[in-house]
Amino acid sequence: MNKTLTKEQRISIVRYRIESAENTLAEVETHRANGFYNTAVNRLYYACYYAATAILIANGIEVKSHDGVRMNLGKFIVQEGILTPELGRYFSRLFSKRSTGDYDDFFNHSIETVDELMPDAKLFIQTIKDWIELWLKEQEQSAQ
């Protein structure tokens, strides 16, 4: 945490990250349809990663690494009950699958893997998005 963000900066970044999560999730179907399963898993992970960083920033937690995001997501967001423990574990599993697909030689995810991971990615992002919508309303009300 190099600097403290202003309230306005936090709101802007949170909105941007949620939009990035939604846009990245939308990319998955194209990669899946074209047989790029490693890329589809990568995009699933990054869609969830953007949502995870959005909720962390909304809570005043700025991290600079993937490990930091995973650790703080569990430590604060899951512990607070915003995300279920299952979704917290899903994010860690998705990180592992993304790493395998990105860095292991001669490894290719299957369409079944993409199809298995997709519903929880949607739930993960929607759960965070729902919480952020309430948070944004609170921010607007406190500004009045």
TrEMBL record:
Q: Where is the HEPN domain?
A: 15-130
Q: Known PANTHER family for this protein? A: UPF0332 PROTEIN TM_1000
Q: Which family does it belong to?
A: Belongs to the UPF0332 family.
Name of this protein: Uncharacterized protein, contains HEPN domain, UPF0332 family
Q: Which organism is it from?
A: Prevotella communis
- What lineage is this protein's organism placed in? Bacteria, Pseudomonadati, Bacteroidota, Bacteroidia, Bacteroidales
